[in-house]
């Protein structure tokens, strides 16, 4: 990890209301984040962002130890939830700024639904929009959200996921597989 400025700022909470949706991504209500993640989870709107730098590397983060679900696991650059009444693009930009200290150029790639349980602690059940972001800025990591971070070439990430999949969040593995299969021309001319 290169030397970089960090900051500590609380940017979300367990009582923050999430947007409940059906499989067609129609809002059907809201519920506290903690309740959305209890048991098998309740379907809610979310997003994932993969930030790439001019060298073709993607920014990975290791989730903070205080995270309820998948603490200490490596994940994509940023993932979170839009707020009620907030445009999805604005939400992605907000969290990239809040977590990574980055301004990003965004491209929507696709949307998918998944459910993943974390032992008996809780689950993610999300309708997740996946974005590709580009930035030449240096990250200013929010230490309340992120324990560690690194830039990694796509081929190196593929090898690490293959070698030790248990170190990565389930959504990262699902999303990265689809990115490499359907969108690799958008993020790297040479993945190998």
Walk me through the structure.
It is a single chain. This protein is 23% helix and 36% strand. It has 192 residues and is α+β, with helices and mostly antiparallel strands. The protein has one domain: Alpha-Beta Complex (Nucleoside Triphosphate Pyrophosphohydrolase). The chain has a four-stranded mixed beta sheet with strand order 7-4-9-8, with helices on both faces. Strand 8 and strand 9 form a beta hairpin. It is globular. Residues 1-5 have low confidence and may be disordered.
Write the layout of secondary structure elements.
Blueprint: E1 6-7, E2 17-21, E3 27-32, H1 33-36, E4 44-52, E5 58-63, E6 74-75, E7 78-80, H2 88-100, E8 105-118, E9 122-134, E10 141-142, E11 146-152, H3 154-163, H4 170-182, H5 184-187
Parallel strand pairs: 1-10, 4-9
Antiparallel strand pairs: 2-3, 4-7, 5-6, 5-11, 8-9
Tag the structure with descriptive keywords.
192 residues, alpha+beta, Nucleoside Triphosphate Pyrophosphohydrolase, four-stranded mixed sheet, three-stranded antiparallel sheet, disordered N terminus
